[in-house]
Specification:
With 549 residues, this protein is an all-alpha fold. It is built from 29 helices and 3 strands.
C-alpha cells in the first residue's frame, strides 16, 4: 500500500477555551509587519498572517482580515487557509467557517483545519456534517482526517449527540479500503475509540497489529479492560508495556481501586511506581484514596494525607473532597470534618461529601446544619446529589416536614427536576415515619411511572410496619419491572408475610424464587486484619482477600 504522510498540524495548536474573544484586545500593542498595508500582495498578507498566527495574541491579526475586506482584495488559497487558522486560534469558529465557505474549492488541508477546530470546541455534529461534505468533494480524507473522526466518536460517547451506529467500525473499514498506511497516531485513535465505545475486543485486535506498541495505546487498553472487570488482561498489557510512564501506572491503580478484591493491589502498584522514581500525580492520589475507601483502611489514608501535605497537594479541592469521602466511609467523621474545616476553598462536591458523611454516620442534624450554611451563608447552589444526601439525613432524623421542604425546593428554587432516586428517598422518609398511606399517595401521584427503587423503598417500609397487603402490591410491582435482579424484594416480602404468620404465603414466595431461579447472595461481614479485609460468612471460616482472588 502507498504510504501517505499525515499533515504535521495537530489540534493542539488551537486554544481550548470555547469563549469567543473580541477581535482586538484593548490597550495591547500591535507587533510590526505593516507591509500588507502599503503593498497588499498575497506574499505580504501571508507573511503578516503567519506572524500573528505564531504570536501569543493571534486575535490581533484579525485586523488584517478587516483590511482585506476593506480594500476588496481576493485572497488566494494560501491566504484563505492562514485566515482560517488565525480565526481558529482566536476561538472564532464562525469567522473560520465563513472563510472556509467562501473558498471556491476548499483543499483537504482546509477541511482538516476546520474539522480539528470543531473537535477542539466539542462541535461533533458540525464536524460530522463537514466530513460528509468532504466525502462528496474531489478531496479524499487522509489519516489525519480519520484520526479526528475517531477522536470525535470518543468525545461524543455518553453525550447528548447520537452518533451514527458503529461509526468507529465504519471509519476503520474506510481506512482499510483506502491507500492510507496507518501510523501510530491512527492506530492510537482507533484503539482509544473502540475502548471508549465499549468494544475492547476490537481494540485488542488493532493493538496486536501494531509493530511497536506505544504507552498511550497500552494505557487506553488497560482502562478498557479494567472497566469491564478483565483484570488479568489488563495486567498482561501492563507487563508487556516496557516504556512505562506515570499515566499507565495511574490506569492500573485506578482499575484496581474499584473493587475490594483488587484494591490492595492498587496500593502495591502505588508503592512500586515510587520505587521506580515516578512521582504520583493528583490522579494517582485520587485513585489511592478511593482504594482506601473500599478497604476501609483509614490508617493508610492518613499516610496518604501526610504525603499530600509533603507534596503541597493538600490544598487541592479535589483531594480535600476525596479525603472527606474516604474518612466518612471509614466511619472517621471527625477526621473528615477536620479536612473540611481546613480547606481554603470549597466547592459543591466538598460540601456534598461532608453533608453525606454526617448523614451516613449518624449525625443528621449536623448534615442539615451544613446544608443551610452552604445555601444561606455561602450561596452555593446544591446539586442532585446534595439534595439526596440532605433528604436522606431527614429520613434518619425523622424530619418529615424538613424533607418535604427540601423536595419541593428542588424545582421551585433551583430548577432541578427530582429524579427517581429523590422520589424513592421521599417514600423511604415517609415510610420510616410510619406514614404509609401518605407514602402510597405520593407514589400514586408521581408524574412518571415509579421505578423499582421507589417500590423497594415502599416495600421496606411496609415490612417495617407490618402492612402485608401494601407489601404484596409493592413486591409485585418490583417483580414486573425486575423479576430476577431484586432478590431482596422476595426476601422482604417473605419476611413481612412470616411476621404476620402467613406461612403458606411464605412457602409460595420461596417456591416462586426457585421457579424463577432467583437466589440471594450470602451475607458477609468484614473485619480489618493485618493482611487486609477479612470476610466472615455464615458457618464458614474467615476468607481473607488475597492477591489474585
Amino acid at each position: 500500500m502507498k504510504h501517505v504522510k499525515l499533515p504535521s498540524i495537530r489540534p493542539s495548536i488551537f486554544p481550548s477555551s470555547q469563549n469567543q474573544r473580541p477581535l482586538i484586545q484593548p490597550n495591547q500593542p500591535f507587533p510590526p509587519p505593516n507591509d500588507y498595508i502599503s503593498s497588499p500582495t498575497a506574499v505580504s498578507l501571508s507573511a503578516a498572517l503567519q506572524h500573528y498566527i505564531n504570536s501569543i495574541f493571534p486575535s490581533h491579526g484579525q485586523k488584517i482580515h478587516a483590511h482585506i475586506l476593506k480594500i476588496g482584495f481576493k485572497p488566494n488559497t494560501n491566504v484563505s487557509i492562514k485566515l482560517l487558522i488565525l480565526h481558529l486560534k482566536s476561538c472564532c469558529l464562525r469567522y473560520a467557517r465563513q472563510i472556509f465557505d467562501e473558498m471556491p474549492q476548499p483543499t483537504l488541508s482546509a477541511h482538516n483545519y476546520m474539522i480539528s477546530g470543531y473537535l477542539k470546541n466539542g462541535k461533533i455534529e458540525e464536524l460530522l456534517n463537514l466530513v460528509s461534505r468532504l466525502t462528496f468533494s474531489y478531496e479524499k480524507p487522509d489519516g489525519f482526517t480519520f484520526s479526528m473522526i475517531l477522536k470525535a466518536t470518543g468525545c461524543a460517547s455518553g453525550g447528548n449527540f447520537a452518533l451514527p451506529y458503529c461509526l468507529e467500525k465504519v471509519v476503520h473499514a474506510q481506512i482499510l479500503r483506502s491507500n492510507i498506511e496507518p501510523d501510530d497516531v491512527l492506530y492510537t485513535a482507533l484503539v482509544d475509540s473502540y475502548v471508549k465505545n465499549g468494544k475492547v475486543g476490537y481494540a485488542r485486535r488493532v493493538f496486536d497489529m501494531m509493530l511497536e506498541k506505544n504507552v498511550i495505546c497500552s494505557t487506553s487498553l488497560i482502562s478498557g479492560y479494567m472497566s469491564q472487570g478483565r483484570v488479568e488482561d489488563a495486567e498482561d498489557i501492563f507487563r508487556r508495556t516496557f516504556e512505562k510512564d506515570v499515566v499507565v501506572f495511574n490506569a492500573m491503580i485506578e482499575g484496581y481501586s474499584k473493587s475490594v478484591e483488587t484494591a490492595r493491589r492498587s496500593l502495591e502498584v502505588y508503592i512500586d511506581m515510587q520505587r521506580l522514581n515516578f512521582r504520583p500525580t493528583l490522579s494517582t492520589f485520587a485513585s489511592v484514596i478511593g482504594a482506601c475507601s473500599v478497604l476501609a483502611a483509614y490508617e493508610i489514608g492518613q499516610q496518604v494525607e501526610s504525603q499530600l501535605v509533603k507534596l503541597d497537594f493538600i490544598n487541592d479541592i479535589k483531594m480535600g473532597s476525596a479525603l472527606i469521602d474516604m474518612y466518612s466511609k471509614c466511619g472517621r467523621i471527625e477526621d473528615g470534618r477536620r479536612v473540611f474545616d481546613h480547606m481554603p476553598e470549597k466547592n459543591i462536591f466538598s460540601w456534598t461529601s461532608m453533608i453525606d458523611g454526617h448523614g451516613k454516620n449518624g449525625n443528621p442534624m449536623e448534615a442539615l446544619e451544613l446544608f443551610n450554611r452552604m445555601t444561606i451563608e455561602h450561596h452555593v447552589k446544591p446539586n442532585y446529589v446534595t439534595f439526596l444526601s440532605a433528604m436522606s439525613a431527614c429520613g434518619h432524623a425523622g424530619l418529615v416536614a424538613k424533607g418535604w421542604t427540601l423536595f419541593e425546593s428542588m424545582e421551585r428554587d433551583y430548577m432541578l427536576k427530582p429524579r427517581m432516586e429523590h422520589y424513592a428517598c421521599m417514600v423511604d422518609l415517609l415510610g420510616r415515619a410510619g406514614s404509609l398511606q401518605e407514602a402510597w399517595d405520593f407514589v400514586m401521584g408521581m408524574p412518571e411511572k415509579p421505578g423499582s427503587d421507589v417500590w423497594a423503598a415502599l416495600l421496606s417500609s411496609c415490612q417495617l410496619h407490618g402492612d402485608v397487603e401494601m407489601a404484596s402490591i409493592a413486591a409485585n410491582e418490583i417483580f414486573k419491572l425486575k423479576s430476577d435482579s431484586r432478590p431482596g424484594a422476595y426476601v422482604a416480602l417473605s419476611n413481612a408475610l412470616a411476621a404476620a404468620g402467613k406461612w403458606d404465603s411464605v412457602s409460595e414466595v420461596r417456591q416462586l424464587m426457585k421457579v424463577r431461579g432467583v437466589s440471594k447472595d450470602t451475607g458477609c461481614s468484614w473485619v480489618g486484619a493485618d493482611g487486609g479485609p477479612c470476610g466472615f460468612l455464615t458457618r464458614k471460616r474467615c476468607n481473607q482477600i488475597q492477591e489474585g482472588r
